[in-house]
């Protein structure tokens, strides 16, 4: 089973999340960052092209053998679908069309969701915005593993299994930690997605749909692009709860690696986050950062000091501590 993790509890703190206060300090010193706020006019064309590319791929993969199909899903389709998930992330902040056109953003979210195979764009937004506002909150932030996850997957092998199963924890964890009734838009999202899936099966066959769904699941688990799930908020250096990554995988993930910058300024689209770092380097270059998402996965699995417990948590206000 491998070495057992050294932590037996989460890192509980009694301070506010750090991003709101740092945002205020940075804007006082560099008010020009406000000019970076707003939507990226090129984003919708990039995201739309990715959707079309994945649909065109169905013409090719529909006749693949199962081993070749799984390989294609891991090496190509999954990467494209993961990028589309991060496009949905951008859209959740209304960075495609701006806050003045919310339904335009939601519709583009439905479109980017199509190749992913599972309806998630509306549900993701509902929980993700709370992750920003209540980072680390024990009862609200569904990005944090449950106590059961931390207890069950507390060895080297256990962490390996946990990483492989990450997509399922991301799907079901919100239903346990912070369940919410489905909204009208979530129902619409589901109907659109199921209709698209049925059309894929009708025109391309079950293998084509399997290619989409398998790719989405594989690229959320033991996959280099999925390293950002762990790199963003798992505590690799004591006291630091958000980490940035400035490597080349940002090119295909809408700069989600600029994660401190993103949490400090969620109104800045991913394409402009490097400019935030350029303007205010002293706030970011001195903080711990990751240089490789693959290395993050390796260290997470093999280092006994890191595991599902390695998250900073805060007691919800009003709850017994």
Automatic annotation (TrEMBL):
<keyword id="KW-1133">Transmembrane helix</keyword>
<keyword id="KW-0812">Transmembrane</keyword>
<feature type="transmembrane region" description="Helical">
    <location>
        <begin position="43"/>
        <end position="60"/>
    </location>
</feature>
<feature type="domain" description="Sphingolipid delta4-desaturase N-terminal">
    <location>
        <begin position="5"/>
        <end position="43"/>
    </location>
</feature>
<keyword id="KW-0443">Lipid metabolism</keyword>
<dbReference type="InterPro" id="IPR005804">
    <property type="entry name" value="FA_desaturase_dom"/>
</dbReference>
<dbReference type="GO" id="GO:0046513">
    <property type="term" value="P:ceramide biosynthetic process"/>
</dbReference>
<keyword id="KW-0472">Membrane</keyword>
<dbReference type="GO" id="GO:0016020">
    <property type="term" value="C:membrane"/>
</dbReference>
<dbReference type="GO" id="GO:0042284">
    <property type="term" value="F:sphingolipid delta-4 desaturase activity"/>
</dbReference>
<feature type="transmembrane region" description="Helical">
    <location>
        <begin position="156"/>
        <end position="172"/>
    </location>
</feature>
<dbReference type="InterPro" id="IPR013866">
    <property type="entry name" value="Sphingolipid_d4-desaturase_N"/>
</dbReference>
<dbReference type="Pfam" id="PF00487">
    <property type="entry name" value="FA_desaturase"/>
</dbReference>
<dbReference type="InterPro" id="IPR011388">
    <property type="entry name" value="DES1/DES2"/>
</dbReference>
<dbReference type="Pfam" id="PF08557">
    <property type="entry name" value="Lipid_DES"/>
</dbReference>
<keyword id="KW-0560">Oxidoreductase</keyword>
<comment type="similarity">
    <text>Belongs to the fatty acid desaturase type 1 family. DEGS subfamily.</text>
</comment>
<feature type="transmembrane region" description="Helical">
    <location>
        <begin position="107"/>
        <end position="124"/>
    </location>
</feature>
<feature type="transmembrane region" description="Helical">
    <location>
        <begin position="66"/>
        <end position="87"/>
    </location>
</feature>
<protein>
    <recommendedName>
        <fullName>sphingolipid 4-desaturase</fullName>
        <ecNumber>1.14.19.17</ecNumber>
    </recommendedName>
</protein>
């Amino acid at each position: 089973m491998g070495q057992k993790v050294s932590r037996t509890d989460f890192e509980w703190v009694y301070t506010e999340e750090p991003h709101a206060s740092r945002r205020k300090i940075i804007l006082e010193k560099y008010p020009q960052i406000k000019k970076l706020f707003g939507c990226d006019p090129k984003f919708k064309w990039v995201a739309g092209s990715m959707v079309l590319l994945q649909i065109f791929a169905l013409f090719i993969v529909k006749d693949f053998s199962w081993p070749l199909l799984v390989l294609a899903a891991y090496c190509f389709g999954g990467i494209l679908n993961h990028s589309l998930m991060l496009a949905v992330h951008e859209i959740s902040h209304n960075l495609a069309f701006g806050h003045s056109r919310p339904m335009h953003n939601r519709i583009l979210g439905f479109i980017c969701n199509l190749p992913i195979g599972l309806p998630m764009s509306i549900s993701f937004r509902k929980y993700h915005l709370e992750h920003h506002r209540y980072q680390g909150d024990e009862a609200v932030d569904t990005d944090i593993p449950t106590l059961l996850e931390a207890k069950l997957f507390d060895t080297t092998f256990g962490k390996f299994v946990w990483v492989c199963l990450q997509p399922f924890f991301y799907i079901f964890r919100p239903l346990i930690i912070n369940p919410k009734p489905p909204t009208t838009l979530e129902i619409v999202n589901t109907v659109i997605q199921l209709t698209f899936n049925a059309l894929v099966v009708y025109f391309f066959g079950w293998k084509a749909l399997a290619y989409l769904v398998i790719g989405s699941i594989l690229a959320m688990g033991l996959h280099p692009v999925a390293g950002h799930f762990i790199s963003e908020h798992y505590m690799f250096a004591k006291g630091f709860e958000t980490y940035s990554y400035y490597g080349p995988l940002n090119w295909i993930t809408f700069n989600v690696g600029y994660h401190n910058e993103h949490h400090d300024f969620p109104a800045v689209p991913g394409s402009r986050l490097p400019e935030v770092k350029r303007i205010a380097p002293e706030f970011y270059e001195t903080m711990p950062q990751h240089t490789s998402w693959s290395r993050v996965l390796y260290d997470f699995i093999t280092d006994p000091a890191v595991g599902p417990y390695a998250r900073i948590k805060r007691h919800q206000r009003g709850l017994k501590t």
